[in-house]
Here is the input.
Amino acid sequence: MLTVLCVQGCGSSASDDEKRPEPVPSAPYWGNRGYALPDGPFTREDTVVTATCNMGARYAGVDVQAWDPERWELLDTRNFFIPVDAAFTNYPGVQAVHSPLVELCGVTPDSPSPYAVDDLEYVTPRVRALFDLAYTRMAVVLRDADGRTTHAGYVESGGNADDFVRLSDAESDDEQNAVMAPDGRSVWFTYFTADGERRIGSRSTEGDHRLSDQGPATGHDLPLTVSGKPPHAVQADMVRLAPDGRRFTATAPKIYGHVFRTRASSGPLNAASGRTATLLNGCLGVVGWVDGERVLCRTQSGSFRTVNTRSGRAEGNAVAVIREDDGRVAEGMVVSADGERFIVSVHLPNDRSGGPLGLDDFRVVSTSGEVVAVPISADLLTDGTVFLEWR
Here is the structure.
């Protein structure tokens, strides 16, 4: 299952949708099938990929790791050094930056998420969008020395703290929400024009890095997800692409529904999008697609249910991960590609501090509830680890 997800555009009416021919499921535009990926642990089937932020006195970096989900053996690790200029935390005296990297590395009880909702069903797709499909590049937002000027950039895996590329020039001073295109050849972001207009832009990682305007934005408060070939962006939360690429889950303030049709242009969810959207009854957070017609939801009662994305109604039995008197919460992160299992984080409410696993833990759970949940035991995981993908 790929969690770098597909696109949704703005400005088309319902009549436009009716005129649009149905997309061919195998067409690469509707998903990421058109991209040729190198062979290796990060792109092979039945691999789980995680991201963990590590910080020391003179070091900040993200370790992206590929795991065998049957034995939880580490297959490979890619290291992304975070430049000193990168915004990986928000603190007094500087411009607050909206970036999934801040959410991965800089969230503490005193410094909350830069986004309105920090449930893991929201966090996982946001952090996944930082990387290309093969996990070779990571998008970053760079702060200038004044603490208030921000620029889009990226780092390569395996480099050092000085190996980063700043894509924008001094005249561009308000670029945020930087995320990577599926092929790693462009970084996308939200920005404001000189007239104060809110836009989505991109800059190529090659050549002169000239700004390409990609469409309207709602500002910086909502993240971006980029996918498709050619790439397009949707500005929304909890974006997860269906297996055939023709629909995606998402949420945005004042927009009705959870499941939307993939569109051909970049932009935020809007009222027109909600006219044909499906509302998933009782769905607090979408963990992922179980198959082409169903998703797994975390419900308002704290259990997990499979929900039909056409009718919006739950199917099968509720899957309870923890007891009601446990005192902790269980939040979902990824569903396996075959739809049979998913991974949850069990932790105290409002507490993901990045420390060693102890009271907090991760578990592999059956989507049907017929198999006993299995704790994940791996020394390199912390309670701040984010599970990005289960291919």
Summary: The chain has four helices and 25 strands. Helices lie at 14-19, 100-105, 120-128, 271-274. Residues 1-28 have pLDDT under 50 and may be disordered.
